[in-house]
Please model this.
Amino acid sequence: MGGPAGGPAGGSPGAESTPPAPSAVPRLALPARVVAAVAGGLLMFLAFPPLGLWFLSPPGMALAVLAVRGTRPRRGAWLGLLVGLGLLLPGLHWVSPIGADAWLGLVAMESAFYAVWGAGVALVTRLPLWPLWSAALWVAAEWARGRFPFGGFPWARVAFSQGESVFTPYAALGGAPLVSFAVALCGGLLALAAVRSFPARRPLPPAPSDTAAPSDTASASSQGPASSPAARPAGVPAPPASPLPRPAGAGRRIRNAPTRASSVSGMWIDLRR
Model:
């Protein structure tokens, strides 16, 4: 018969449920993911002229991937939107003289592509070789930005920040898409190195209980100290079990039972006469 919570009765330590195994993905709190997403976009912006800090693009990409990895697609979309805002709000600020509404509207429209990228990365990072797939999704998002809407707005592509860097020679092989892919792949590999360097913490196994089970405790207490093997010296036999006490007057009632029966039968015979 089960206990109150539906588990096995008896309270034995072996009947406790085993805790679920934690995921191998390091879990980040939501504020940390938000900070990583915005910081990743800002680092990628700093790689563009006039600053030209091209070497910040791979770390920025790594932060963007780490912010999204291990989340559901819906949350990944919101975090990807933050990546796009961190990159495009300062990157497209030159549009603001036309009007703040045009600047903010263009940034919001272009950031929607990074929201789709974030939802996709939340899915593909569950697969093997996920740095490769996340880089391919980044190139696909930049390609879609350059085509839609109204013929596309290909500004602030990662390849445009690598004018004079170690990734520049890839432009002769595959143009701007290959340069963006190389930078995104490098960032994904940095994210993979971070995941391998800081694995998820696993809980310690539960310590064995020092207290005996309730059933064992009850049986030990009912036997008493004399019947315990540790309480008797070696070679001394156990004392005989004492008979159960008999209630007072039990023998007297049994012996008087025939006398009462004979007196009752004698009275019945006298009445019939």
Remarks:
- Helices lie at 30-46, 57-68, 73-91, 100-124, 130-145, 171-197, 214-223, 250-272.
- Residues 81 and 115 are 4 Å apart (CA to CA).
